[in-house]
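Entry 14. Structure prediction run on the chain below.
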Amino acid sequence: MMVRDEAELVDCVRGAQGRLSLCGGATRGLVEGADALSLGGLSGITLYEPGSLTMVAGAGTPVAEVEAALAEQNQRLAFEPMDHRGLLRTNGEPTIGGVFAANVSGPRRMVVGAARDFLLGVRFVDGRGKVVSNGGRVMKNVTGYDLVKLMAGSFGALGALSEVSFKVLPKPETEATLVLHGLSDREAIAALALAMRSPFEVSGAAHVPQEGITLLRLEGFEASVGYRLSRLKELLAAQAGEVEVLGAAGSAARWQAVRDVDAFHRAGGDVWRIACKPSQAPDLAEAAKADAHLFDWAGGLLWCRVGAGVDLRARLGTFDGHATITRAAAKTLKQLGRFHPQQTGVARLTAGLRDRFDPRGIFHSEIGGLHAG
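Output returned:
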């Protein structure tokens, strides 16, 4: 069922006799064993103030509509949210509410922050059918529950978003990417770490082993990008063999492929997303024994493609981070759980929050807890 406004959403939640699985454009699939409730009808940009770098939109507003409006003012969503459709082989349109509900953040996350860091305010309907509003249209301190941050990455476990307000940023004049060829995983992570420690303001740092390339993105004014690019090449001269430079168009296309994990789209198997310390990434990649893997966030994010049903958490053992299943069959998700198991104290806190916001257990989510994404 699709709701057309917040009043209908309230009625649906209050009248629910079973569990509800919330979705926007259904691009990340649906939770089995619950009735689908689409928020895609809660669509439209209700306020956009380019001078204040803020926008307010219905949760069901397509991301494409948001990005088109921002592009007209030479602005953007700085955290460059991933489009899951190619990886998950789904249709539909990603929505801005879905982006914030899942805290979807792309390669630029390591320097500008995650989606949740740009969320200013929310309106949502909790499990009792009560409309809750928190935050506003500017960054500010709050007292009590910071529901804005709590809802970001909650995956519909606490309530149904109806409206979001968020911060945007100006687009840079240009971008370029330095491509290093032929580095091993360990050499690549060392080179990325060196680049990230430099003063040259790297906004993307990835390694794609299947192609033997290591990527470093620079953005800003054209003269600045050119200068920083030449200095970065000098800095990495000892680490790099063959070096290539991608101009603005090639750079944008390459980073979209990294963002959407394009290398895994046409291959079978399960896909896992591992957040970890960059220094641990090469060891984890080795332990994973994956059919394919790639690194983003200078090694802080490791994507692995493994055989169907493989328990990657068992292979990885204990590490500082978490492993999430992004793509797998329903049987595997039921057996292993999509999200990393929580420690006892965190699990108790999560259960308390869910009891507070959804005492009837209306919102059916695979999430056992609330994750940073």
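The radius of gyration is 21 Å.
Filed with the rest of this week's runs.
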